[in-house]
Amino acid sequence: MTNWIEERLMAPEHVVFRLLDGEAVLVNLKNGTNYGLDEVGTRMWQLITTSDSVQAAMDVLIEEYDVTPENLEKDINRLITELKNQGLLITVNKK
Q1: How far is the C-alpha of 92 from the C-alpha of 11, rounded, in Å?
Q2: Is 53 helix (H, G, I), strand (E, B) or coil?
């Protein structure tokens, strides 16, 4: 499993984010694909694209949700992998 814990992530310039009724729609303008996120996925997206690291985002999520650190790490790794594969997230830097 790839671990993004120390990375700072952001949306590339070709990705548009829209919030609709608490859920997000991400649009990749390069290829026209849409990607929907439920409320939890949307919150993850918001935190991982604005925090200094994925770990910082996870620290907030642990406080906000009733989830074990192990399950959260598994879920966030899955989301990041999928979003990176779709061209919806990029790494800004690694610590």
Answers
A1: 9
A2: coil
Can you give the pTM of this predicted structure?
Answer: 0.88
Residues 6+ apart with CB under 8 A from 45: 17, 24, 26, 37, 79, 83
Q: Any long-range contacts for 27-34 (C-beta under 8 Å, 24+ apart)?
A: 28/86, 28/87, 28/88, 30/87, 31/87, 33/86
Give the percent of the chain with pLDDT over 70: 95
Rounded Cα distance, 93 and 52, in Å: 9
**Helix, strand, coil tally for the chain in percent (to 5):** 40, 25, 35
